[in-house]
Design a protein that fits this description.
320 residues, mainly alpha, 5 strands, globular, transducer, transmembrane, Olfactory receptor
Length: 320
């Protein structure tokens, strides 16, 4: 059997062999990518330029938006180009780089969401000690830990995946170099080490999810004891956007990874992948703009003396 580890690359099958369907998905991906690009850049710009949004919460939100930009840019632009050119070829080194970057961003995003939940816990449950605990040093160290975990996860996952030998047809039934699809090309049971790494990373992800869940149990318990209705509303306005993002990212990715994968992927299988690779970074800016009171108040353009909320712009784009 041929060993494609030593050959030039793989063939990404994408969504369909029909050019008209490929063009349709390319157009959809382009719209979603533009929405994600504009939304995340606006959040980064707003939180960087507005000094009233300099708290740790918005410091982490800015980096979440940057991470979302990286996350969606790893797969979507290449997929759009492949569809437009009707050529799904990807070289071995491009596949390795894409796999590494995708895993890095996924692990880092989960770690960052965990750090952000801790920030909300300190802000609501320990408000008098918030500025002492969440100082600049803590924020920087937390961010370094996020990127370190992402790099470590990316290196482990990529090294374990591409240490195996690939046999048979070098065809990947996905619009990017997806690790489960790559493992189907394994010559034998060499992917056992990769499954071990995947299990370890899944365990860490589950630990992060449990940590976030426990954190929000304490947060909601504290919020419900706030006597002022306005105080409870303010607390919920800062917590619900973050919790929505966590649920969206974790639920869609977990459902796709845990469901049985068929030998011949269907359109629904591809769409499930889109739910955790494309939708979270696209919807995150919309969720934060619509649910976060400060972002709704600060995110606006001045045009002819009138204020135009970015939330309304996002809604208009999504309704097009």
């Amino acid at each position: 059997m041929a060993n494609f580890t030593t050959m030039s690359g793989f063939l990404l099958m994408g969504f369909s062999g029909k050019p008209e369907i490929e063009m349709l998905f390319a157009a959809l991906f382009l719209v979603l990518y533009i929405v994600a690009l504009v939304g995340n850049i606006l959040i980064i710009t707003t939180t960087s330029m507005d000094h009233s949004l300099s708290s740790p919460m918005y410091f982490f939100l800015k980096h979440l938006s940057f991470l979302d930009l990286c996350y969606i840019s790893v797969t979507v632009p290449r997929s759009i180009c492949n569809s437009l050119m009707h050529n799904g070829y990807i070289s071995l080194w491009e596949c390795i780089l894409q796999c590494f970057a995708f895993t890095l961003c996924g692990c880092a995003e989960m770690a960052l969401l965990t750090v952000m939940s801790y920030d909300r816990y300190v802000a609501i449950c320990l408000p008098l000690r918030y500025e002492v605990i969440m100082d600049i040093s803590t924020c920087v160290h937390g961010l370094l830990a996020v990127w370190a975990s992402g790099i470590l996860g990316g290196v482990m996952h990529t090294a374990a995946t591409f240490s195996i030998h690939f046999c048979g047809a070098n065809i990947i039934h996905q619009f990017f170099c997806d690790v489960p699809q790559l493992l189907k090309l394994s010559c034998s049971n060499e992917y056992v080490s990769e499954l071990g790494v995947s299990g370890f990373l899944a365990l860490l992800t589950f630990a992060c999810f449990i940590s976030i869940g426990v954190t929000y149990m304490h947060i909601f318990s504290t919020v419900l004891r706030i006597p002022s209705a306005e105080g409870r509303a303010r607390a919920f306005s800062t917590c619900l956007p973050h919790l929505s993002v966590v649920i969206l990212f974790v639920s869609t990715s977990a459902f796709d990874f845990l469901k049985p994968h068929s030998e011949s992927p269907t359109v629904s299988d591809f769409l499930l992948t889109v739910f955790y690779t494309v939708l979270p970074p696209t919807l995150n800016p919309i969720i934060y703009s619509l649910r976060n009171k400060a972002m709704k108040e600060k995110n606006f353009f001045h045009f002819k003396g009138k204020n135009y909320s970015l939330s309304l712009i996002f809604i208009s784009v999504m309704e097009m």
